Amino acid sequence: MSDIFDESRMMQALGRYVPAGETVKAGIHGIGIDSEVKQIFGKCVLVDGRLYPDENGGVLEVSKEKYSRCDVYIGITEHYLMVVECEEYKHHYEFNQNPDLRGAVVREVRTCIPIEDMGICFPLAEIKKCEIKNGWMGSMNCSVTMKDGSFLKLMFPKRGGLGKGMPHHKEYRDAIIARLEGGNG
């Protein structure tokens, strides 16, 4: 497990999900406590756990939930918050073919999307509410609610693990907290 506390490994993991035109500004090892992510996709079909583009396809709401602690890398770019799991974990998925579309953002599927890849990258502009509170032993607890109703509860540890694998942990943790406290613009 100690290889999780490696800054270069973290940057590689975050780098797989960085949106085009963005760069990782800060990243830390943290703990994912709870997550409830809902996204609505249009013009697609679901086959074997993957969404495929289909001009004749319908609308599908995908819910991805996890209610147990897991190791995650938490990163920010100029416009995005990213939460990438350090190891493969199981999630609960639900699919709704008749979602309520009032006020919803429907994402058109243009390329194949494995459902496990949803709920990793969140636009900072879509944050509705972010609460950061002091936690145990110098940690910070962060609850993020998105405009679409998705919810993340994260813990930012005071230190980046044993050894010297995360030399920029304090600096990056402070940058992520400042960005999240700074609002969604």
Task: Explain the overall architecture.
The structure is a single chain. This protein has helices at 7-15, 169-181, and strands spanning 26-47, 50-53, 58-66, 70-76, 80-85, 92-96, 106-108, 113-114, 121-123, 127-134, 140-146, 151-156. With 185 residues, it is mainly β. Strands 1, 2, 3, 4, 5, 6, 7, 8, 9, 10, 11 and 12 form a 12-stranded mixed beta sheet that branches. Strand 4 and strand 5 (80-85) form a beta hairpin. The longest helix has 13 residues, at 169-181. The termini are far apart. The mean pLDDT is 92.
SSE layout:
Elements: H1 7-15, E1 26-47, E2 50-53, E3 58-66, E4 70-76, E5 80-85, E6 92-96, E7 106-108, E8 113-114, E9 121-123, E10 127-134, E11 140-146, E12 151-156, H2 169-181
Parallel strand pairs: 1-7
Antiparallel strand pairs: 1-2, 1-3, 1-4, 1-12, 2-8, 3-6, 4-5, 5-9, 10-11, 11-12
Please summarize what this structure is:
The protein contains 2 helices and 12 strands.
